[in-house]
Amino acid sequence: MPVTARTRYDTVAMSLHWLIAALLIFMLFFGEEIMETEVGGGAFGPSLHVSIGSAILVLSVLRLVWRVINPPPAYSASMAPWERLAATATHVLFYVLLIGIPLTGWLATPKFLRDEDALAGLTLFGAFPLPAAPSLGLPMKGIHEIGSNLGIVLLALHVLAALKHHFLNRDDVLRRMLPFGRAR
Which long-range contacts (CB under 8 A, 24 or more apart) does 13-16 make? Predict the structure, then answer.
């Protein structure tokens, strides 16, 4: 019996994609406000920010490992070469940002804690103290914010490209990642 090529992402890849997407969207649009939320003078908001960022980091590394072990389906034959190149570049840049933004946030904590000593009780998931980050003497907060802004732009381009493929090209690019979609 001939082996047919996969046209859709597997369940693990889809689950990680949508979970990371939900966390990322929340953080890109509300992350800064969470950092400023102090419940009872404590570090609840910043701890929530750190915990969600850590979850994004861990899930992104898991997704990258899964992608290496379980390669995604091939690009649609209907995609132009420039679209394939743009899709590959987008995926690479997403992984750089999904790993880099949480790391730069962690590396920004020494200065943050010096400026906001009342928040020295940052925890991960309310259970573990945040491990101390080295102070690199670099403007990590600024780098973290630039990464977040790039993340918003990349997210918008990614969504627009998926919608373009679905509604204008009428191809299966979007359906490949939808848990309820079926490839034609």
Answer: 13/63, 13/66, 13/67, 13/70, 13/72, 14/177, 14/178, 14/179, 15/179, 16/59, 16/62, 16/63, 16/66
Q: What is the pLDDT of residues 29-86, one digit of tens each?
A: 999 999 887 666 678 889 999 999 999 999 999 999 999 999 999 998 889 999 999 9
pLDDT digits (tens, 9 = 90+) for 52-64: 999 999 999 999 9
Q: Position 63: which residue type?
A: R
Give the residue among 59, 62, 54 at the shortest CA–CA distance from 31.
54
For the entire predicted model, the pTM comes to 0.92
Arithmetic mean of pLDDT over the chain = 91
What is the pLDDT at residue 3? Answer: 47
Q: How far apart are CA 70 and CA 76, in angstroms?
A: 18
| Model pLDDT for residues 145-159, shown as the tens digit of each residue | 999 999 999 999 999
What DSSP line would sit under 86-151, residue for residue?
HHHHHHHHHHHHHHHHHHHHHHHHHHHHHH-GGGTT-EETTTEEPPPPP--SS-HHHHHHHHHHHH
Q: Could you tell me if 26 and 52 are in contact, meaning their C-beta atoms sit under 8 angstroms apart? A: yes
